[in-house]
Amino acid sequence: MKYAYGVTRRGRSHERRGTVCQDAHFIFSRDELQIAAVADGLGSQTHSDMASQTASRVAVEFCANEIPKSMDDSAVLEIIRGAFQEAYNAVLCEADEMQFEYDQCDTTLSLAVLLDGFLYYGHAGDSGIFALWENGLYEQVTVPQNDEEGRVYPLCFGEDMWAFGKSALKAASVLLCTDGIAKIFVPAYFRAQETKLYVAMLDYYMDPRRHEFRAADGGNQTLVEWLENDLQTNVDPDKVNQDDLTMVILADSDAATVRQPDAYYRLPSEEEIRQAEENQRKRLYPSA
């Protein structure tokens, strides 16, 4: 069973200030082709919500219209590159129509295409794409694009900064998220560990068989309702800096995957997390 669903939720800081949600996502799913995009409008800019909504929608629709099943790898990647250019042009066009300044309409954009089980992607900014491969391992596919001071490189920085690629392995599921959620899956205190990922948390959201019964009962709408409630009740706002939250999942419960040893997916204890946080603090502030 294939399913595709996602949630965008306004962050606590925006709720308090009365600011609109600046995250967005868009999904297309049909037969062997699943496409999704997430976008995070730059919070310092007045009209970034328009930019994130337009960029995610246009990029997905462009790919859905242009990618037939028989295309080869290079053609699919070229279409994704074209989708990023179309998305950027659409943001500028809408800004012109609404008489917005271009520099008030910046957004990140991450896009995933699952075609016959293989992942093709495009990426601009600090959102994240994660995959569960057929070998049972999880991987952060994209690297956050930030400068030395932590400032993000958004879509407007152009194709020299955009990243594109195709997986060597087939994926059983793919998760796209904006940076608030990504910080949960790649916590700073795990950076010294071998995997660097919070595998237990990724497995909770991404294992396609874990949520198959929800999809069977009510389809994508049931999955959306579950994810909305989960983000509302189980994600600590302080862990995500009160940020807007977007998560999208593309999954195939029929995909052939092996299971790693149980230890790989084990939930770390509170003591292990505390020790990892302490080790991270010592690395950052050795003289403290």
Summarize the structure.
Helix content is 36%, strand content 24%. It has 288 residues and is α+β, with helices and mostly antiparallel strands.
CATH topology, what is it called? Phosphatase 2c, domain 1
- Name given to the CATH architecture: 4-Layer Sandwich
Shape: globular
Provide the structure class: alpha+beta
In round numbers, the mean pLDDT is 88
Helical region count? 7
Give a structural overview.
It is built from 7 helices and 9 strands. By secondary structure, it is α+β, with helices and mostly antiparallel strands. It has a single domain, classed as Phosphatase 2c, domain 1, CATH 3.60.40. Strands 1, 2, 3, 4, 5, 6, 7, 8 and 9 form a 9-stranded antiparallel beta sheet that branches. A hairpin with a 4-residue loop joins strand 6 and strand 7. Helix 2 packs antiparallel against helix 3. It is globular, with a radius of gyration of 19 Å.
Topology of this protein?
Blueprint: E1 2-9, H1 12-17, E2 23-30, E3 33-40, H2 48-66, H3 73-98, E4 109-115, E5 118-124, E6 128-133, E7 138-140, E8 163-177, H4 179-185, H5 199-206, H6 212-234, E9 245-252, H7 270-284
Antiparallel strand pairs: 1-9, 2-3, 3-4, 4-5, 5-8, 6-7, 6-8, 8-9
Helix pairs in contact: 2-3
